Amino acid sequence: MKAENSQLNQRVYQALIKLNNFMGFFPNNLEANLALLVKELEKLLAPCQADFCLRQRNFTALFGEVPFSGERYTLCQSEGCWIEDHVLPIIVQDLSAEEGCRNHLVPPGIQSYAGIPIMEENEVIGVLTLHHPQKDFFTREILEVLLVMANLAAIAIHQWRLVTRLEREKTELQEANREIKELARNLAQSVDELKKTQKQLIQLEKLASAGRLATDIAHEINNPVGIIVSSVECMLLDGGPALSEEFRNDARVILDQTDRISKITRSLLSFARQPVEEKSAVNLNQIIEETVGLFSKHLGKKGISVHQDLQKDLPLILGNSNQVQQILVNLISNAGDAMSQGGNLYLRTKFRGRKLLVEVEDEGCGLAPEQLEKIFDPFYTTKGKGVGTGLGLAISYSLIEEHGGEIDVASKEGEGTCFTIAFPAGELVS
C-alpha cells in the first residue's frame, strides 16, 4: 500500500510540474489549461472520467463571460446544487446505496463519484467532478489529489481572470490613447483653422478700412484733378496756334500725369466698391487661355515662356468670369514684373480633395518672409516707385473671398513665387 501511495505521489508531483509550467506559459488560455488538468487527472486515476461543471450564474457574475464551451466543460444553470449550497465536497462511494446530488447526471457504468468545489472570492464558480466505475474508490490520498487539482483549477481561472482584465484594460488604454491623439490632432487642426480665420478677418478688416479711406481720398483727388484737366484743355483751345511747342509739350505732360492720377483713383474706387455682379458657370481653363493670350506678346518680349498644365474635363465653378479674369490678370502681371530677366511662367489647374486649384508660379526674384506677411495688404508693393499702386493683390484677395475661395502663396528669395487659389467644392456646377 505504501509503495502504491509513493508511486501516486511521484506521478502527482510530475503532473503538477507539467501543469505549473504550462499554465505559466499560457496564462490567458483557460480552456487549454483546464483540458490539460483533466487529461493529467484521468491519467493519474485511470480508469476514470473527469470534467468541469461551471456554475454559470456565479461565473458570469464575477467574470462577465464564459470563455469556452465544450464536452468536458458544461454550464450548470439549475438551482439546488448541494455543493454550491453547502460549499463542501461531495463523495459518493456507492451509487446503489447513496443518493448523492439530485441535480448531478451520472454516466452509465459509474459506481462512485466525487465533486470538489472550485472557489473564487468565496463563491463556488464551478465543480471538478471525477467518476469511477468501481465502488469505494475514493481514498483519503485520492481525495487529497482532487483537492490539489481543484485548487490548481481555481488558480488557473483566477490567473486567466487577471490576464484577461489586464488585456482588456490595455486595449481600453490603447483606444483611449488613440482617441486622445485624435483629439489632439483635431485640436491642432482647429487651432490652425482658427489662426487662419483670424488672419482672414484681420485682412478683411484691413481691406474694409482701406476701402473707406480709398473712397474719401479718391473723391478728394478727383475734384482738383478735374479742374486741372479742364484748365489745361481750355488753355490749349484758347491759345491756338500762338502757343509755343514747349508750352504744348508741358501741357501734354500735365494731361498725361492727370490721366495717370485718374487711373489710380479709379483703381481706388474699384477696390473700395467691388461691383456686385451675377454669377454663372465659369470654365477656368478657358479663362486662363484667354488671359494668357492677352499677355503673350508682352511676356514674349521680356523673354518669358508660358507653360500651361490644365487638367482636362475640369468641373465648372459658379463665379463671375470678369472677376476671375481680373484675379488672373493681377497674378500674371505680377509674375511678369518679377521676371525682369526672363524665365518660365507655369499655370496649372487641378481637381483635388473636392477643391478646384489654380496655380500661378514664376521663376522671378521671390519674396522675403517679412514681405509675404504683407503681400495682401492694401497699398503694399514690392515694386519701385511709380510702378504699382499696391492694390492688385488686395483686390484679388477680396474677389477670391467673394467667390468663397482661398489664396495661398509660397515663395523663396531668388527662386520664385507660387500662388495657389482654391475654389470650394460647394461652388462646383456640373
Structural features, described:
This protein is α+β, with helices and mostly antiparallel strands and 430 residues long. It folds into 2 domains: 2-171, Beta-Lactamase (2-Layer Sandwich); 279-430, 2-Layer Sandwich (Heat Shock Protein 90). Helix content is 54%, strand content 19%. It has 10 helices and 13 strands. It has helices spanning 2-25, 30-44, 56-63, 82-86, 140-239, 245-272, 284-301, 321-338, 369-372, 392-402; strands at 49-55, 73-76, 90-92, 112-120, 123-132, 280-282, 304-310, 316-319, 343-352, 355-362, 406-412, 416-423, 428-429. The strands form 3 sheets. Strands 2-1-5-4-3 form a 5-stranded mixed beta sheet. The longest helix has 100 residues, at 140-239. It is rod-shaped. The N and C termini lie far apart (97 Å). The relative contact order is 0.07.
| Helical percentage | 40-55%
**Termini Cα gap:** 97 Å
> What number of structural domains do the residues give?
2
Give the overall average pLDDT. Answer: 79
CATH class of the largest domain: Alpha Beta
Taking Cα atoms only, what radius of gyration do you get, to the nearest Å? 46 Å
Order of strands, widest sheet: 2-1-5-4-3
User: What is the β-strand count?
Assistant: 13
Order of helices and strands: HHEHEHEEEHHEHEEHEEHHEEE
Question: What percentage of amino acids are in beta strands?
Answer: 15-25%
What characteristic shape results from the CA principal axes? rod-shaped
Oligomer: single chain
CATH topology (level 3) name of the largest domain? Beta-Lactamase
The second-level CATH architecture of the largest domain is: 2-Layer Sandwich
> How would you classify the helix and strand content by structural class?
alpha+beta
CATH superfamily annotation of the largest domain: GAF domain
Helix segment count?
10
Describe the main β-sheet briefly. Answer: 5 strands, mixed
Uncertain runs: none
